[in-house]
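Researcher: I've been going back and forth with a colleague about how Holliday junction branch migration complex subunit RuvA might be arranged in three dimensions. Neither of us has a model we trust, so I'd like an independent prediction. The organism is Leekyejoonella antrihumi, in case that matters for your notes. Sequence below.
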Amino acid sequence: MISSLSGTVGAVGLDHVVVEVGGVGLLVHTTPAEAAALRPGATARLSTTLVVREESLTLYGFAETAQRDLFEQVQTVSGVGPRLALAMLAVHAPTPLRAAIAGGDLAALVKVPGIGKKGAERIVLELKDKIGPVEAGAGSSAPTTPVAAEHEQVTEALVGLGWSAKQATEAVDAVSAAEPGTREVSALLRLALRELGR
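Model: Here is an independent structure prediction for Holliday junction branch migration complex subunit RuvA. You can compare it with whatever you and your colleague have in mind.
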């Protein structure tokens, strides 16, 4: 098991980064907000989990150990794989996600593309008593970085999560009008996801 890695960021994609470790470039899948916070040439340290399948070895990485642990925990629910678990963490920070599961907040869970009412009910049923205490006041501590083309990045991230380009553009425009001072990609992404969840 590869539980963490640190190295130089070689490339950044919409939902992945390549981290150079000892001369080897490792492709690490992550949330759009995490990817947007990293820059080629910067040093990154990620808590990781390796998902082994017959045909592939896939590495997933997170800025915080709490995110990785929650990513692994939600996959214990039948029907929840790595892609859906990653989408859950793209839409919700770890603490609100834990709170939604512990409190049976189905409305919050169905905001995640790929989770319907029955899926949300199953997640709550199987994890409600296992999720652990929710820390008051704690939130995502994922790093955020202002970028020049933040609106385009957020739109691409939303499309990557399953919304249409039209829906994504409308959500980003609505958020920009309501919160004109917000320039951080992760903050814009969360606001846009909230807008789409209405």
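Researcher: What would you highlight for our discussion?
Model: I'd start with this: The two ends are 39 Å apart (CA to CA). After that, consider the following. Confidence is low (pLDDT under 50) at residues 136-148.
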